[in-house]
């Protein structure tokens, strides 16, 4: 018999009452026993149902606890919002924005975002019906309580929280990653620039110059306007190095580059081509204009005085000038300038020589 | 008797009682909004049927989840079987559980332990 059920007491009282009767009807006795049996069966069913139900309840509770613990310990910040108001946040989230749990709960989610993100991003994070499937990720900026900005990645989805529609937001602090990316970009830019620059003088190197000439050939092909190359070499530079040392020689090179760059236009390109050999590219310039520039450069260098140790060095340069003609390879054009340069040396140095292979007007 | 067929929905299982084919099965999760409305006709059908049948009757149950009120009606179904078994009829239950669903096993054990007819709990490999 299952105890603790009032029906059993009633049955006991009915039995006692019947026993005190003189001639109790046998049918009534049987009825009482049947009632007791039904009662016991129902009581057993009730107990069983409660046990099964308890088992599920325990499972639900344990599962909820496990997930809650995971959410609490994840490396991302987690928020649950309803109607744009924060209802729940994990500990990591508090660290990202610098608020205590009580300060964060009840705060408007928009207040945590940078003002620029209070429109579109905020909308996306508070939409009632967020599509099923992989939740969308937004890059955004949050504001720490102390005013600093925190780069974040927001992953947003819809859920039911306390019987009402809500949104969950996973917030990943990507400030470090952003900084690292910026550093990498900067480093790449510097490496790119360095790969095209001469280490000593800072002007372009061969690679940089060739890329620029390639661009210029394409431009000349489109516009039909010529460009010219001026190759120059310092006369008797070996003497400078032998007399004053390589450091002095380097200083002369640097001074020449400075002086030439001051002289030429912004669009002109100067490259150190070899040891003491330089190449200048003059866009939108024909041979006549290039000769004027070449002579100008020659005079500037001739008038330079570079102080080295106890003395002062002065050098001259010889120049070869060529107007690029379409269809010519870069190598050939440079070779022509080089030949003119050697012609200038042959004629006694400190002069400019124009290439006699005149560009073919038909090729333009 | 006519076949009873209730198609499965998100919250109710498939119920197929087909005397012609000798198939009696309940398959799918069960958490109806109104359990009485859903299960009363099922229980009534079975009681009616068992009253008149002769031969062997096997009820197949394969439900990964039963809410409490569904369990309550399962008990009614099993009671109906138990009572005709007591009257000498050949009945049995085959109750399927997913291998890793520990709760479903416990539920099946609870439900089967008071039954005097064969109540087989069969593990389904995932």
Beta-strand residue percentage of chain B: 25-35%
Amino- and carboxy-terminal Cα gap of chain A: 114 Å
Oligomer: heterodimer
Walk across the major sheet of chain A and give the strand order: 2-1-5-4-3
Secondary-structure-based class of chain B equals alpha/beta
Provide the gyration radius of chain B in Å.
14 Å
Helical percent range of chain B?
25-40%
Calculate Rg of chain A over CA atoms: 45 Å
Tally of strands of chain A: 12
Determine the mean pLDDT of chain A. Answer: 89
Concise account of the structure shown:
The complex is a heterodimer of chains A (364) and B (126). Chain A has 364 residues and is α+β, with helices and mostly antiparallel strands. Helices cover 51% and strands 20% of the residues of chain A.
Could you describe the 3D structure shown?
The complex is a heterodimer of chains A (364) and B (126). Chain A is of the alpha+beta class and 364 residues long. Chain A has three domains: 6-71; 74-177, 2-Layer Sandwich (Beta-Lactamase), CATH 3.30.450; 196-363, 2-Layer Sandwich (Alpha-Beta Plaits). Helices cover 51% and strands 20% of the residues of chain A. Chain A is built from twelve helices and twelve strands. In chain A, strand 7 and strand 8 form a beta hairpin. The radius of gyration of chain A is 45 Å and the shape is rod-shaped. The longest helix of chain B has 19 residues, at 68-86. Chain B is α/β, with parallel strands linked by helices. The model of chain B has no long low-confidence stretch (mean pLDDT 93). The interface between A and B is small, with 10 and 10 residues.
Helices and strands, with pairings:
The complex is a heterodimer of chains A (364) and B (126).
Chain A: H1 6-20, H2 26-73, E1 77-82, E2 85-89, H3 91-97, H4 101-104, H5 109-112, H6 120-126, E3 137-143, E4 149-161, E5 164-173, H7 175-195, H8 206-223, E6 228-234, H9 237-244, H10 246-263, E7 269-272, E8 277-282, H11 287-303, E9 306-308, E10 311-313, E11 317-323, H12 330-346, E12 352-354
Parallel strand pairs in A: 11-12
Antiparallel strand pairs in A: 1-2, 1-5, 3-4, 4-5, 6-8, 6-11, 7-8, 9-10
Chain B: E1 4-6, E2 14-18, E3 23-27, H1 35-52, E4 56-62, H2 68-86, E5 90-98, H3 102-112, E6 119-124
Parallel strand pairs in B: 3-4, 4-5, 5-6
Antiparallel strand pairs in B: 1-2, 2-3
Helix pairs in contact in B: 1-2
């Amino acid at each position: 018999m299952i105890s603790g059920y009032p029906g059993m007491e009633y049955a006991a009282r009915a039995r006692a009452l019947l026993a005190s009767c003189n001639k109790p009807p046998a049918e009534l006795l049987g009825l009482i026993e049947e009632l007791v049996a039904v009662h016991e069966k129902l009581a057993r069913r009730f107990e069983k149902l409660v046990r099964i139900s308890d088992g599920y309840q325990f499972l639900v509770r344990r599962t909820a606890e496990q997930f809650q613990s995971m959410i609490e310990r994840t490396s991302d910040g987690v928020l649950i919002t309803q109607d744009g108001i924060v209802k729940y946040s994990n500990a990591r989230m508090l660290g990202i924005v610098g608020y205590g749990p009580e300060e964060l709960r009840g705060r408007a989610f928009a207040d945590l975002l940078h003002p620029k993100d209070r429109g579109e991003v905020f909308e996306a994070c508070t939409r009632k019906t967020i599509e099923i499937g992989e939740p969308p990720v937004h890059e955004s900026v949050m504001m720490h309580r102390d005013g600093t900005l925190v780069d974040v990645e927001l992953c947003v989805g819809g859920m039911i929280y306390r019987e009402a529609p809500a949104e969950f937001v996973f917030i990943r602090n990507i400030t470090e990653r952003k900084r690292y990316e910026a550093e990498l970009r900067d480093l790449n830019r510097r490496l790119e620039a360095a790969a095209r620059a001469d280490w000593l003088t800072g002007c372009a190197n061969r690679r940089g110059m060739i890329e620029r000439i390639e661009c210029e050939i394409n431009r000349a092909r489109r516009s039909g306007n010529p460009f010219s190359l001026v190759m120059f070499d310092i006369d008797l530079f070996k003497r400078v190095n032998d007399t004053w040392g390589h450091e002095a020689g380097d200083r002369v090179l640097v001074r020449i580059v400075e002086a030439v760059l001051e002289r030429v236009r912004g669009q002109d390109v100067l490259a150190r081509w070899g040891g003491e050999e330089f190449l200048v590219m003059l866009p939108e310039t024909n041979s006549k204009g290039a000769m004027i520039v070449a002579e100008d450069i020659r005079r500037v260098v001739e008038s330079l005085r570079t102080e080295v140790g106890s003395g002062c060095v002065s050098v001259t340069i010889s120049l070869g000038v060529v107007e690029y003609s379409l269809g010519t390879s870069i190598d050939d054009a440079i070779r022509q300038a080089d030949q003119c340069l050697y012609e200038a040396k042959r004629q006694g140095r400190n002069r400019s020589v124009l290439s006699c292979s005149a560009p073919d007007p038909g090729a333009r | 008797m006519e076949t009873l067929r209730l198609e499965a929905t998100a919250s109710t299982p498939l119920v197929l009682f087909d005397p012609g084919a000798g198939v009696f099965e309940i398959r799918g999760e069960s958490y109806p909004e109104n359990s009485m409305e859903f299960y009363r006709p099922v229980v009534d059908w079975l009681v009616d049927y068992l009253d008149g049948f002769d031969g062997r009757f096997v009820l197949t149950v394969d439900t990964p989840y039963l809410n409490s009120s569904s369990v309550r009606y399962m008990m009614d179904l099993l009671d109906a079987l138990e009572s005709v078994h007591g009257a000498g009829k050949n009945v049995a239950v085959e109750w399927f559980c997913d291998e890793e669903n520990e709760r479903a096993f416990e539920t099946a054990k609870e439900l089967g332990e008071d039954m005097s007819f064969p109540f087989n709990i069969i593990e389904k490999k995932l």
